[in-house]
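for the recovery benchmark. tokens below, seq after
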């Protein structure tokens, strides 16, 4: 029996940090956070895949453990059009790289959870490249769910507005006009998404799903 490992990208802040901290309370043998700021593996998920693979696999004891859960959370939403290519590099290719890197070390029954966005569902006119990158990630989720079934499940969560995160920093309260667009009348908090991660991971029949968690904003 292999020890179970969970890996979370973008684990140094916001939603990723909340997921990482909650998973550490579960019965995984180890939870590994990956980002440019750690907390465990300091790496850019857009770097050369072979170099990234070496960094990650060097942290795993493959004689006694396998990856049971991968949460692809790392993402960016810059408003500078000069960053458009990097948006796809991080939001889409970064997740794809991580799945490919770990493909041979997933446990049977492992789960991949990609963190997309409702922007990939409702198509934001002011953020076309960001929206396209998240729509592509949702599509990738469904394609890979078919490719890897039944040995690995691949699912997706599309959050709405959550606070605080790097996309919606916590130094000041969000503007009221944004909150007014949400039927539930408030932003989500990052810890609540950890509950959805745990639900998807525990449901062994769920694959190819995109779970929208947005307080009703996409309605």
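predicted aa per position
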């Amino acid at each position: 029996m292999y020890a179970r490992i969970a890996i979370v990208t973008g684990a140094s802040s916001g939603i990723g940090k909340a997921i990482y901290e909650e998973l550490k309370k579960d019965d995984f043998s180890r939870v590994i956070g990956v980002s440019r700021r750690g907390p465990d593996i300091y790496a850019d998920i857009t770097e050369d895949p072979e170099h990234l693979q070496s960094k990650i696999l060097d942290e795993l004891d493959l004689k006694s453990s396998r990856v049971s859960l991968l949460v692809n959370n790392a993402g960016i939403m810059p408003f500078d059009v000069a960053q458009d290519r990097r948006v796809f590099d991080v939001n889409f290719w970064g997740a794809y790289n991580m799945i490919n890197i770990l493909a041979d070390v997933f446990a049977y029954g492992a789960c991949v959870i990609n963190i997309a966005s409702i922007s990939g569902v409702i198509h934001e006119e002011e953020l076309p490249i960001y929206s396209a990158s998240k729509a592509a990630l949702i599509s990738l989720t469904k394609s890979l769910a078919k490719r890897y079934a039944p040995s690995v499940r691949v699912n997706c969560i599309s959050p709405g507005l959550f606070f605080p995160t790097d996309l919606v920093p916590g130094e000041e309260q969000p503007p009221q006009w944004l909150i007014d667009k949400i039927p539930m009348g408030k932003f989500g908090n990052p810890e609540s998404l950890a509950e959805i991660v745990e639900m998807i991971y525990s449901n062994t029949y769920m694959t190819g799903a995109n779970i929208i968690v947005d307080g009703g904003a996409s309605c």
